[in-house]
Write a structure and sequence with these properties.
The protein is about 35% helix and about 20% strand. It is of the alpha+beta class. A hairpin with a 2-residue loop joins strand 4 and strand 5.
């Protein structure tokens, strides 16, 4: 086990933010970055499985217990995700996607027991780049905090809270134009932003719009 590699701090551009309890912004690492780190540290010789799962409709939440196996080391952790429902009917949209999001959450939490991303909890994360500095190599913004108007043009939006209704509607229109299903879009959001579409923040929504417009 390469502990030095496992515990190596992630680059600032790999650290995303989401809104936690009481409006506090939390740093997190996306699922694909954690998987890449595990592949590198264990030469892809690791596995992850769901031991059990539970669907709690009373709290609109799904829970999974995941088990990460790397060599002779076994780590288990719970993961959770909100149940996504249609705005008007209240029907479940895709329980499978919700379980996938919970599984990703469990994997990331289990990986922290091996040291992956542990520096975020210890408060020793690397300094973020100055947002006033330009980056000519940047292809698309991440966590910009900007919204969109009805035509898709950007507008200033203070804060980085949950995706706005205008962003949500515009993204669904772009999704249809790209020939993509809601399930496929939710899978992309879960892998990239750590949550399904309905629960990403405004900055991630802005980044998602840029991605969809590239099709």
């Amino acid at each position: 086990m390469n502990r030095e590699l496992l515990e190596k701090p992630f680059n600032p551009d790999q650290i995303k933010q989401r809104e936690g309890n009481f409006g506090k912004m939390l740093d997190y690492i996306e699922g694909h970055s954690v998987i890449a780190r595990l592949n590198e540290a264990f030469d892809s010789n690791w596995s992850f499985e769901i031991v059990k799962h539970e669907i709690m409709t009373d709290t609109d939440e799904v829970l999974v217990l995941g088990k990460l196996i790397a060599g002779d080391v076994i780590k288990t952790q719970f993961g959770s995700s909100r149940i996504t429902r249609a705005r008007e009917s209240g029907d479940m949209i895709s329980l499978a996607d919700d379980l996938k999001a919970a599984a990703t959450d469990a994997l990331k939490k289990a990986a922290t027991l091996l040291g992956v991303g542990l520096h975020l909890y210890a408060g020793a994360k690397p300094s973020r780049p100055n947002p006033t500095q330009s980056n000519t190599n940047q292809t698309r913004p991440t966590n910009s905090g900007n919204g969109v108007n009805g035509s898709g043009n950007r507008q200033e939006n203070n804060g980085n809270g949950r995706i706005s209704a205008k962003q949500h509607k515009f993204i669904l229109n772009l999704m249809k134009e790209a020939g993509m299903t809601k399930s496929q879009l939710n899978q992309h959001c879960t892998e990239t932003y750590g949550s399904v579409l309905d629960y990403i923040n405004k900055g991630d929504a802005s980044s998602l719009i840029d991605w969809l417009q590239s099709f």
